[in-house]
Amino acid sequence: MVIKSHQIYLWLLFLVPVLLTTEAKAQFSFEILRTVSLSDLQNDYKSLFLPEIWRFTVDDSKDLSSPDIDDWDWINMSTSLEPSALDILDWNGQGWFRLGLDVDSSLVGIPLSVDVISNSGLAQFYLNGQKLFEISPSSQNNIFANNSHVATFSFKEPGRNILAIRFQNNNADWYRERNLPSGIRFNFVEAGFYSTQVIDFIRQLSRSHFFFSGTLFVFSLLHLLLFIYQRRHRENLFFALFTLLFGFFLIVLLQLELSSYLTAQYYLTHIVEVLRGLTIFFFMLFVYELLHPKVSLVRVGFVAVLVAAYILYATLNGQYLLLVRDVLLILLAVETLYQLITAIYFKRKGAVIFGVGLGVFVASQILIIFINFDVLVFSREISAVFGMAFLLLAMSVSLSRNFAMTTKRLETNLIEIQRLSNEALEKERKLKKEELERQLLEADNKRKTDELEEARKLQLSLLPKKLPEIAGYDISAEMLPATEVGGDYYDYHLIGDQAIFAIGDATGHGLKAGIIVATVKSFFHTHADQGDNLSLLHSISTAVKNMDARMMYMSMAVIRFDKGRLQLTAAGMPPMVYYNKKSNSAKLITLKGMPLGSVLNFPYQTNELEMSKGDVLIALSDGLPELFDHEKKMYDISRVQAVISQYAHETSDQIRYRLLNDARKWTKGAPNQDDITLLIIKKEK
Q1: Dist. CA 77–CA 503, nearest whole Å
Q2: Is 589 helix (H, G, I), strand (E, B) or coil?
Q3: Is 138 exposed, middle or buried (0-12, 13-18, 19+ CB in 10 A)?
Q4: pLDDT, tens digit, 9 for 90 and up, residues 75-101
Q5: Model confidence at 33: pLDDT above 60
Q6: Taking a C-beta distance cutoff of 8 angstroms, is the pair 501, 492 a contact?
Q7: Strands of 554-562's sheet, edge to edge?
Q8: Which pLDDT score is estimated for 147?
Q9: What does 301-320 look like in DSSP terms, one character per residue?
Q10: Which residues, in sequence order, are CB contacts of 241 under 8 Å at separation 6+?
Q11: 104 CB neighbour count, 10 Å cutoff
Q12: pLDDT at residue 673, as a whole number
C-alpha cells in the first residue's frame, strides 16, 4: 500500500498534541519530586521533615499505591485533613495520599522510624507499591511499652521513590464539629535516635511524673490522718484534698503528653482543666483556713465562681484558654498575697513559713507567664516543678508546726494535771505519766528532726547569697549537699581592692560536719585580712584542731585576687583545673597538703597565676570527680577537664550548668553520695 505524503502530514498533526500532552503529564507527575538525602537528617531532632501537602484522591484501590499510577489529576491536600479541607472533599471514610521522593544514595539503607505527632484513624504506609506497616491509635499506645512496635523502614534504592498512605477515618464529622483535624501528622526520624533518645526520654518523664505524684499522695494521706486526729484543724483536710487532686492532675497530664490520638487528647484536655480548677479551689480554701479561719463566705464564693467559670470555659470553648488561665492565676495570686500580708501583720502562726514558700511559687508562676508571652526564654517545666515543690514543702512545714505547737500545749496541760493530782489518784497518775512519757518521746523525736532541719537551713545560710562582682572576672559557685547537712562550703571575703575566695570540704556529713563548716566560716572572715593565704590556713587549722572533734578535718583551698594575679593555696583539696585559651588546653594545678586540723603549721604550697582573657579556673571538692555511674566507674577529674575544654567559651554560670548536667547524665539521675561544690572563675578582660 502506498502512503501519500498528505496522509503523513495528517498523522503528524494528530500525534504531536498527543505526545505533547503525554510529555506534559510526565513533567507534572515526576518533575516535582522532593529530593531527600542523609544531610536532611543532620538536625537536632534527626528528623526528615516531609512536606505537609501531598497528592490526594478519595478513590480507594490498592493499585493506587503502585509507583506507576499517574496522579496528575489528583488534588493537593494536607495529610492532617483540617476541618476546612473536609468541606471541599466528598469524604467517604477513606482516601489515598501520595508523595514522590528523589532519594539520594546516601539515604539508602538508613533505618527510619515514624514519629506520629497526631492521628485520628488508620494509616497504611506503602513504599513503591509494597506495604510497610500500618498505624492506628492502638498501635501508637504500644510504642511506649515495647520498642518493637515502632514503625521502621528504609529506602531500598536511590532515585524515584513513591510513598503512599491509605488513610481511613469513618468519624471525620465528629472531628470537624469540634474544629479538630481528622487526618495524620508525622515525621520520619533516624531510628537509632528515636529508640535511644525519644522513647527513653518519654519513659524517664513517666517515672518522674509518677514519682512526684506518689509524693503528693503521701502528703495527702499524712495530712488526712492529721485531720482525723484533730478535726478542728481543717487546713489539713484542704491540704490533703489539694495534694490528692494535684497528684491525679499530674497523672492525667502525663497521659495527655504521651497521647497522639486526637480523640484521647480531646477528652484528656477536658479532664486536665477540671482537675486544674479543683486543685486551685482547694488550695485557696487551704489559704483561707490557715491564715484566716473566719474569712467571709463572700470571698470563698467569689473564688468558687471564678474557678467554676474557668472550668466551664475550658470544657466548652477554650479558644483563649492560656490567657484566661493566666488572668485567673493573677487574680488568685493577688488575693492570696493580700491574705498573707494581713496574716503576717496580725502575727498568725505559720504565716511566715507559708509566705516564703508562696513567694517562691508566685515567682515561678510569674516566670511561666513571661515565658508564655515570649518575654523570657526558660523551661516552663523546671519553673513549675521547683515552685510547686517549694510551696508544698512550706505548706507541710506550716501545718506540722501548728500540729507540734498543739501537741506541746497538750503536754503542758498534762504536766499541770499531774502536778495538781492528789495521792488518792496515784494509780491514775501513773497511767497518765506513762502516757506522758510516750508523748514526750514522740515530741523529742520530732524535736530532733526539727533540729536537724534547722541545722540544714543554718548550713545553707552560711553560703553567700550572691557572689561579688570583681572587675574583669566572671565568677560562679554552687554547693549541692548529699544529705540534710552537708560538709562542703564556699565563701568570699573582700579586703579593699582585694578579694579572697575559699572552698572547703569537711570530713563526712551530718550535723558534726555542719558545725565544722560554721567554725571555719567564722575563722575565715576573722583572719582573712590578717596575713597571706598560708597564715590564714594555719589559723583555721589551729581552730579546727582545738575543737577536739575526733577524726574531723577540713580540706580547703584559698584563692586570693591581688593586683591582677591569683594566689592559690590548698590543704587536702583535689587539683584545680585551669583552662588556657591561648593553648586551648585544660591542665591540673596540684597543691598537695594535709587537711586543716590534722598537722599544725604544715608548709602548704602556694602557686601564683596570671589569667588572660578567656582563661578559666575551677576549684572543686571531691564530690564531682568521685561520682560513680551504675557500673561503678568513677567520673574522674579528666572528664571535668574535657567538659571545661568544650564549653570554656561560655559564661561561668553556663559552664557550671554544663558540668552538673554532665554529672547527672553520668549517674543517670541517681542522688550524689557526696557533697558537690564548684567555684568557677573566668577572666573576661
Answers
A1: 64
A2: strand
A3: exposed
A4: 998 998 888 887 788 788 889 999 999
A5: yes
A6: yes
A7: 488-495, 498-506, 554-562, 565-571, 606-609
A8: 40
A9: HHHHHHHHHHHHHHHHT-TT
A10: 220, 282
A11: 16
A12: 78
Q: How far is CA 291 from CA 224, 397, 680, in A?
A: 19, 14, 43
Between residues 67 and 204, the one the model is more confident about: 67
Could you give the CA distance from residue 631 to residue 369 in angstroms, rounded to a whole number?
Answer: 42
Percent of the chain past pLDDT 70, that is, above it, reads 83
Rounded distance, CA 301 to CA 297, Å?
6
A 10 A CB-CB count for 24 gives 11
Q: What is the pLDDT of residue 644?
A: 94
For residue 172, how far is the Cα from the chain centroid? 37
pLDDT at 671: 81
- CB of 474 closer than 8 Å to CB of 651: yes
Cell of 671: 542522688
3-state SS of the chain: helix, strand, coil percent to 5? 50, 20, 30
Interval 62-78 mean pLDDT: 88
Return the residue matching grid coordinates 517515672.
207
Half-sphere exposure for 175 (CA within 13 Å, toward CB): 27
State yes or no: pLDDT of 28 exceeds 60.
no
pLDDT at 618 over 90: yes
* Nearest Cα residue to 78 out of 54, 100, 95: 54
- Highest mean pLDDT among 360-364, 398-402, 422-426 belongs to 360-364
Instruction: Report how far apart, in Å, the C-alpha atoms of 389 and of each of 353, 395, 430, 485 are.
Output: 14, 10, 45, 19
Q: Where are the alpha helices (DSSP H) in 104-233?
A: 137-142, 172-177, 191-193, 200-229
Indicate the Cα dihedral angle 449, 401, 212, 228, nearest 10°: 110
Residue with cell 573582700: 494
Q: Is 242 left (phi over 0), alpha (psi -120 to 50) or beta?
A: alpha
* Cα angle, residue 120 at apex, residues 119 and 126 outer, rounded to 5°: 65
Q: Which three cell numbers stand for residue 547?
A: 575543737
